[in-house]
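Lecture 7 notes: from sequence to structure.

We start with a single chain of 331 residues. Read the sequence below before looking at the structure.
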Amino acid sequence: MISPQPVTDLMWAHWKTKTMLSAVELGVFTALAKEPLPAAALCERVGLHPRPAADFLDALVALGLLRRTGDVYANTDEADEYLDAAKPASYLGDSFLTQCAGLADDLVGVLRTGEASGAARDGRDFYAGTYADADSVRAFQRDMTALSIGSARAIAERFPWERYRTLVDVGCAEGALPGWLLRRHPHLTAVGFDLPPAREGFEKYTGRLGVADRVEFWPGDFFSDPLPWGDVIVLGHVLHNWGEPEKLQLLEKAYAALPPGGAVLVYETLIDDDRRSNAVGLILSLIMHAEVPGGFDYTGAQCQEWMRRTGFRDTYVEHLDGPESMVVGIK
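Now the structure, written as tokens:
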């Protein structure tokens, strides 16, 4: 499999820079140069809202700019030397902010207020706006393919599809996941489930992949409508758009739509369980804080717990491609 990671890494580089610049603008490194601080004290010192704080500070840990011991944060040696405004001989922060003027503005606002930067009041508002016209729908679908294609191709190889015959992709966008799975496994058939405006892009994309005769688009709303039945139900980059009650509701609906022995497969840019290494997972959670009120990313251990709470008996986590992993639960 050819991974898209070398290409997508360049996109995430933008967000890594944005995260560092936000910390510079908020004065995080200058505050910690005086003394290590517990998270609550650091939030108060620099005006950081507690809701996105853990994801933000742990993203800085994963980027190698902060150290965390328990709940106490400290600068790394490099951050202490070059990002402390009180060290004018070596401080680089002003130069970074000048060269990248405006890049961190929206994220800094979210970190200070804890409120999403858009007009959406919740995930439903976000999707109503996103699906409001054909151009917006297509742009969103292409974004989801860019985010999902590496995982889709890895899932085609690493999940035991020989045990199953049907799958349902919930929130299918333009169908990257069922498209690549059906190309790899001729015995499979699939349903793509999404809001009605996604149909055109889904049918065009799966047609280009040559699987249109084995895939069907079902229009619906996964909160107000039952999920289609299938041997495997996939939730890819879906759960992170919602708060915990909605995450549990979707897993409950997946459980109800599966036969005994069926599987739910969740794939995301999972945060590592120690919250120290997958900077992209933590940054994507910050993006959720910024775009979708209530949304957040999570660890594999958290997802396994939610699956067990909704009835799934066996669960496991497996890395896919780049920063992405899947969590599988068996009914």
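The radius of gyration is 21 Å. Keep this in mind for problem set 3.
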